[in-house]
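Hi R.,

As promised on Friday, here is the backbone we talked about, encoded as structure tokens. Could you run it through your design pipeline when you get a chance and send me back a sequence?
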């Protein structure tokens, strides 16, 4: 059974950091790309970052560049999103999605999704 479980969300002050985890089970990340997306209240889900199956391609949205870092631990079958210098506009529910091999910017190309992790950036 394919499953993705996000964790690591929470409340943080502006300028703070959080590390989100996306733990995969039922399949190996060696053959899947993992994308991080987020959805703020009243807004569409948007892409944040992606790690391809080989790790040769990583993607960051303009808002994430320079502040967020995506990484993968093969032994734990887990992808991480380290978020630094967080801003109030980063407040959203963060989802990880999995698809074959390559990253995609299109939500419908990800057949597997986690349940989401709430990130709130507020003083």
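Update: got your reply. Pasting your designed sequence below so it's all in one thread:
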């Amino acid at each position: 059974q394919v499953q993705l479980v996000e964790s690591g969300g929470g409340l943080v002050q502006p300028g703070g950091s959080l590390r989100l985890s996306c733990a995969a089970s039922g399949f190996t990340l060696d053959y899947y790309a993992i994308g991080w997306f987020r959805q703020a209240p009243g807004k569409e889900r948007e892409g944040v970052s992606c790690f391809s199956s080989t790790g040769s391609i990583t993607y960051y949205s303009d808002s994430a560049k320079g502040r967020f870092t995506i990484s993968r631990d093969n032994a734990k079958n887990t992808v991480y999103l380290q978020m630094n210098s967080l801003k109030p506009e980063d407040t959203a529910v963060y989802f990880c999605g999995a698809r074959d091999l390559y990253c995609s910017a299109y939500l419908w190309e990800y057949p597997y999704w986690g349940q989401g992790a709430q990130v709130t950036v507020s003083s």
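One thing I noticed while checking it: The chain has a mean pLDDT of 95.

Thanks again,
M.
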